[in-house]
Amino acid sequence: MSIGLHARRQLLAVALDTNALGQGRPHLGKLRSLAARLKVIGLPVWVPEPVAWEWAQHIAEDWQALFGTAKASFRRLTDAGLDVTPPVSPYADHQAAQQAFLQALAEVDNVTVMPLSAENAMKGLKDQILQRSPGRRKDGVKTGGADSAWLRDLNDHATGDLSRVLLISSDADVTRACQDWRIPMPLMRSSGQVLETLFTFTLDDSDATVTRLIVGYLRDRLDQDPPGPCGFTVTADPRQLATLAEETLAHALGSTWNRQLVNVELTHLNQLIGLINVAVQTPDPGTAVTERKPPSQPVTHTALARVFFLGTVEFLYQKREHFEHGRTHTWREDDVLIYADLAFEIQDGGAVTGAESRREAGVTHPRWFGEPSDALQEVCEALSTVPLLGFPSSWPDADHVELRGPGDVLVYAELQRHTVWSGWRLTVAVGDPAEWVELTCEQDDEAIYDDSDPARTWPDLSSDPPWQLRVSDGSLPSGNPAWGLAGWVMSQLPI
Questions:
Q1: Strands (DSSP E) along 209-258, which ranges?
Q2: Is 279 helix (H, G, I), strand (E, B) or coil?
Q3: What is the residue-wise DSSP string for 56-74?
Q4: Which uninterrupted H or E stretch holds 203?
């Protein structure tokens, strides 16, 4: 995906739109990290002033939600005679919080907030009123003036050639406006694509040193006692979280019509279970001379990887009879599969010094399967993420798989089934003497269609019961045996 050194040298800057860092909100940690990486290759970061204002407005909304609603809840708790600590903010009000954010943004190294010009502000307002690109209606309201103004400013800063700007955005209105204005398009990328676009990465397939370093770093962060922050943040895709919550509550509580989902949150990463697509940044001949490190200072490189975890998600919901009273209920779901694309900072000499999420993480929790073969495929895909093992992503035409993992440790998997349409039993053994676990795939006769609620389609409308994985022997999470098996195999190997 890299555009190459020649094309990169033609770029003037990397610019951000309102949604560049996720959910229309700022993330100064990610912004500082990006700006520092880009400074090394001589590229500044531009933030149009209307984008900074949008971020500040969202900051105000979050401040109001936290300290406005929370104060009312605090009063009710104290009225009930409870000894609780009120929420405290160092900012007098939401406007003070906005100003503090804008000041912090202005101080980020290698980031320039581009002042909005009066001329382009007027042109943007005119585009909104006359509904010219990128002006449009949203829920019957005319919008697009701010986007028009900052896009025009960006074009002016690029001296009329937006093709020399990499814009972190996926907004189709930008494309439409550039086409209507008949000006060059910026190079548009999502935040998760910027590193691969501007730098060159190669797969870590030689001695897998970087893979081992990353595994060690993640295990160290996850194996805290008591459990605590991992040292990096993984933000889950809110749409996938909502889908997971609805499906989980439908399975556990039945009909969906009598409840309302209030909030869903990924609360904890519990276990590392897989790692794939590890790639390491190659030496960059385009590094700015002024930024090259002295011989005594370690050189930091970036590595990318997709990492698989088992995590915990919590749902906050209301029952229909409690809508008016605001009473909420909490549901905790463990053993949820989280897959995140992370970037790691690795110093020469073999130390991972940090990690950050490059895009919103995927979330899933497979429970049922239409066919036994689908369940077996899920198991193989999970085992194929165990690093340095090479387990096939589909079951081969044989009754067993035998591999040698790291440290020449034997991994043996044996499948027993009568026909391709029947259930099966899978035994996996690791080491000599072997530690082993066993999974079975059986029909779940309790998962049936609920005729009392025509809207409910979980798990499906078929009259045949679906298939489910169960742990018949060994210590695996019963809520997610397939991916729990991968985590168990990984824990047995000297990676």
A1: none
A2: strand
A3: HHHHHHHHHHHHHHHHHHH
A4: strand 201-203
Q: What is the DSSP letter of 50?
A: H
For the chain, how many residues are written?
495
Return all residues near 249 (Cβ < 8 A) that are at least 6 apart: 256, 259, 261, 315, 317, 331
Cα angle for residues 479, 357, 186 (degrees, 5° grid)? 130
- Residue 388 confidence (pLDDT): 93
Contact in structure between 361 and 347 (CB atoms under 8 Å): no
The single residue listed with the structure tokens 């503090």 is: 100
Burial label, 153 (beta-carbon count in 10 A; 0-12, 13-18, 19+): buried
Which residues make Cβ contacts (< 8 Å) with residue 180, sequence separation at least 6?
A: 132, 133
Q: Minimal CA–CA distance to 8: which of 50, 34, 41, 35?
A: 41
Amino acid found at 242? A
Q: What is the pTM of this model?
A: 0.81
Pairwise CA distance, residues 435 & 415, whole Å: 17
Q: Which residue has the higher pLDDT, 337 or 247?
A: 337
Gap between the Cα atoms of 393 and 405, Å rounded: 16
